[in-house]
Each structure stands twice: as C-alpha cells, then as structure tokens.
Amino acid sequence: MADQTELNVQVRVLPLIGPGKMALLEGIDRQGSIAAAARTMGMAYPNAWKLLESMNGYFREPLVTRVIGGRRGGSASLTPTGRAVLDIFRSMETKAKIMFASDVDALNLLLAPVSTRQQTACDPIEAGMGSEDCAVKKNGAGRARDASIRRRPGTAPAETRPPR
C-alpha cells in the first residue's frame, strides 16, 4: 500500500529537552557553529544561545563547547555529555515509534482507499484533533476547502473562550 500513515513522535522531557533543542544540538554538530545552526533553523543567535544556556543549567556538564574568535570566527561542538543527551533522545524517539508500529499498521488497515477519502485543507493536529474548526466543504471542482475561520493553533474558538 503506497499511502500509509506515518507516526511522528514528539518526545519532550519538560523543561529539559524537546525536538527544537535537539534539532539545535544536531545543527551545531553538523555546522560546527551555534550561529550557523541557528541560521539553518531560522532562529536568531541570541535565542539559540538562551536555549543552550537553559539546557546547560539542567545537566552536570555543558552540552556544547565553544572556541571564541579566531581566523574563522570561532566554532562550537558537542561535548561528550551533549552527544549522550542527543543520542539518548533519538533512541527514545525510535523506541516509541517501534512500540507503536503495530498500532500504526492496524490503523493503515482501516484506511479508506486514497481515491475515496475526503481531502481536507486543514491539518487535523493543528485543527485541534478533529475539532469543528476543521470543517470541510466540497467546491465545484471537487476539491476540499477549509470552511472554518482561521485562528492560531492552540486557541479556543471565540464561543468557548471566557469573557475578558
């Protein structure tokens, strides 16, 4: 079956580590620079540095070592602790995917053929896991459109919000 569901696991050990912080560590490992890693993520350097300081505050040893200045403007690399934290985090993600693999397979067996599925213009996760904000209408061309009022993910519809 070509169109199968895929399990995306988002492991968070709050407030220590999560997918964004791990992506930053991976970027530093690949790029050899905090600034370059931040740029590839579309993040400002001060924000990247704040994330690193936050993580360093939770662990016995720093996760990243820096060489300031120099001909090429300095560099950064993961410490053994930083490498261990990244490897453990990725291992947790992999184990979670393996643990739920049979459930994902079971869901795949229940999926309708692609040609008969109703296509939506909104992502079910962003729309609040099947909330009414993800209403769909078929237009004349047979394509689906999001008929809901657009709102920021994670905010409640106006009729359910408490008065200010």
Question: Which helices and strands occur, and which strands form pairs?
Answer:
Layout (H helix, E strand, L loop, with lengths): L18 H13 L2 H8 L3 H14 L5 E5 L5 E5 L1 H31 L25 E3 L5 E3 L18
Antiparallel strand pairs: 1-2, 3-4
Gyration radius over CA:
21 Å
Sheet-strand content, in percent, reads: 5-15%
Q: What is the number of domains?
A: 2
Specify the overall morphology: elongated
What is the class of the largest domain in the CATH system?
Mainly Alpha
Helix-strand topology string: HHHEEHEE
> How many E-type strands?
4
Provide the CATH architecture of the largest domain.
Orthogonal Bundle
Helix content: 40-55%
The CATH superfamily of the largest domain is Winged helix-like DNA-binding domain superfamily/Winged helix DNA-binding domain
Report on this structure.
The chain is mainly alpha-helical and 164 residues long. The chain has two domains: 1-114, Orthogonal Bundle (Arc Repressor Mutant, subunit A); 118-153, no CATH class. 40% of the residues lie in helices and 10% in strands. The protein contains four helices and four strands. It has helices at 19-31, 34-41, 45-58, 80-110; strands at 64-68, 74-78, 136-138, 144-146. The relative contact order is 0.11. Residues 126-133 and 135-152 have low confidence and may be disordered.
